[in-house]
Design brief:
Order of helices and strands: EHEHHHEEEEHEHEHEEHEEEH
Strand content: 25-35%
Structural class: alpha/beta
CATH superfamily of the largest domain: Periplasmic binding protein-like II
CATH class of the largest domain: Alpha Beta
CATH topology of the largest domain: D-Maltodextrin-Binding Protein, domain 2
GO molecular function, one term: hydroxymethylbilane synthase activity
Shape: globular
EC number: 2.5.1.61
Family: Belongs to the HMBS family.
Strand order of the largest sheet: 2-1-3-10-4
Number of helices: 9
Largest sheet: 5 strands, mixed
Cofactor: dipyrromethane
Number of domains: 3
CATH architecture of the largest domain: 3-Layer(aba) Sandwich
Bound molecules: ligand PBG
Radius of gyration: 19 Å
Pfam family, one: Porphobil_deamC
Length: 294
């Protein structure tokens, strides 16, 4: 069976590495495939001087790849699930969610630095991260930082930042875990919905041989619960939300964070139950947390 598959990816080193991971898994299942990785710049990668919230949010990282899929320039697109908008076009379904890489967030300090002291500057543009890290480092100052993983690490060397918070998954995929100085537990810092999971998107009705072997059922359950939690709270727009679900056999555990804009504070909570009820549980938890402010 000979078939050519083009996998579309953003241009960043991490995005290409992620596309390669999917390529390798596909090839294991279907050695006859001929797979090429096609990279493209997305609007989110082009505009680096504005915060994502101001220029239109998550969709900016996937739009160009959506068009390339629709136009048949690529056959699959690989994205970090956490970068995907809540609503996914019906024509471009997610065909597989990969086995989850380490979902936790980590601290990376500037070269030579051993620990953070009051007054140090932590670079992060994620309100989810700065809110939670603010409790762990009350004396530190948080400043926006943008750009891909490499750019951010360069900014630690060249600019005023003393530290930054990144996803363990990205650093591990790049083989850069040696720069991690602290791994935050799930309780210390609830991750972003989908963090650590890759989504493989394709065209509706089109079969990709071997795609089943890229998919991980536990990731589907976790993603459904986490994304339902986010959707129930705010539709995934601009306010910070965090959700992490873990499947253990027939049971799913979900932990979530809800930020109340007017109160300027957040609450967290957990829920667990039958794995197949993940979405109902997620809605329930979201409503319980929201209810604390009503
Ligand atoms: N927002 C960028 C982004 N999107 C996904 C990851 C990490 C990889 C993953 O979650 O699978 C990162 C980098 C980071 O947050 O440190």
């Amino acid at each position: 069976m000979e078939r050519q598959i083009r996998i579309g990816s953003r241009e960043s080193i991490l995005a290409v590495r992620q596309a390669q991971i999917v390529k390798e898994e596909l090839l294991k299942a279907s050695p006859g495939l001929e797979i090429e990785i096609v990279t493209m710049k997305t609007t989110g990668d082009r505009i680096l001087d504005k915060s994502l919230e101001k220029i239109g949010g998550k969709g900016l990282f996937v739009k160009e790849l959506d068009y390339a899929l629709l136009e048949g320039k690529i056959d699959l697109a690989v994205h970090s699930l956490k970068d995907m908008p809540m609503e996914i076009p019906e024509m471009l379904p997610i065909l597989a969610l990969t086995r989850r890489e380490d979902p936790r967030d980590v601290m990376v300090l500037e070269p030579g630095k051993k620990s953070l002291i009051p007054g140090d500057i932590i670079g992060s543009s994620s309100k989810r991260r700065t809110l939670q890290a603010g409790k762990l480092y009350p004396g530190c100052i948080f400043k926006n930082i943008r750009g891909n993983v490499q750019t951010r690490l360069q900014k630690l060397e060249q600019e005023e930042y003393n530290a930054t918070i990144l996803a363990a998954a990205g650093l591990r995929r790049l083989g850069m875990e040696n720069c991690i100085t602290r791994i935050f537990s799930i309780d210390e810092m609830i991750p972003s919905a989908g963090q650590g999971i890759l989504a493989v998107q394709g065209r509706k009705g089109e079969k990709i041989p071997g795609i089943e072997s890229v998919a991980c059922p536990d990731s589907i359950w976790a993603a459904k619960a986490e994304r339902t939690f986010v959707r129930t709270l705010d539709g995934g727009c601009t306010s910070p939300v965090a959700a992490f679900a873990k499947v253990c056999g027939n049971e799913i555990f979900l932990r979530g964070l809800y930020y109340h804009e007017a109160a300027g504070e957040y609450v967290t909570g957990s829920i667990s139950g039958d794995t197949t009820r993940g979405e109902a549980l997620a809605e329930e938890l979201a409503n319980i947390l929201k209810g604390k402010y009503e």
